[in-house]
Amino acid sequence: GTEDCLLYPSGFAANIAVITSLCIRQKDEEPAAIFSDELNHASIVDGCKLAKSTSSATIYIYRHNDMRHLEQLLSKSTVKRKLVVTDSLFSMDGDVAPLRALSRLKQQHGFLLAVDEAHGTLVQNTNPLNFSSACKQFADIP
After folding, report:
1. Is the distance from CB of 98 to CB of 84 less than 8 angstroms?
2. How far is CA 46 from CA 79, 84, 105, in A?
């Protein structure tokens, strides 16, 4: 066999599909909780809104790149299925998500992590900014 792959015509379509798919719930399952960086791209925001309207997901907005605030929100949430979504490279400010800190929080809280690579792909630097390169540093992220 071969590896499976999903292709989307745009980053907007990808964010809508991924976020809503990760929040679909079964009959007796409680709605998911989405934790989104306040400076996420509009397509992520729209994906969160659609997940809220179709699956009754609850949306929490954490202060930009503020892992303490995110941890506080995660700790207060009693929902089993949590999704943290962030851009890897924030297009308007040019800063990057704290991937190492997100990985540590992921280990502590067991959430799903979705990282939008639209603006971080093909960035050339001595320290690669794209998530796939950064993942090589994390044992828990394939």
Report:
1. no
2. 22, 15, 24
Q: How many CB atoms lie within 10 A of CB 110?
A: 11
DSSP calls for 7-50: --SSHHHHHHHHHHHHH---TTPPPPEEEEETT--HHHHHHHHH
- Token readout for 65 is 């790149």
82 closest CA partner among 53, 49, 112: 112
Give the whole-angstrom CA distance, residue 77 versus residue 72. Answer: 9
User: pTM for the complete prediction?
Assistant: 0.86
Which residues sit opposite 89 in a β-bridge? Answer: 96
**Residues contacting 21, CB < 8 A, separation 6+:** none
Q: How far is CA 111 from the centre of its chain?
A: 10
Name the band, by pLDDT with cuts 50, 70 and 90, for residue 142. Answer: very low
Q: Are 48 and 85 contacting, i.e. CB atoms less than 8 angstroms apart? A: yes
- 135: which residues sit within 8 A by CB, 6+ positions away? 141, 142
Provide the residue type at 134 as one letter. A
- The pLDDT assigned to 130 comes to 55
Per the CB < 8 A criterion, the answer to whether 43 and 19 are in contact is no
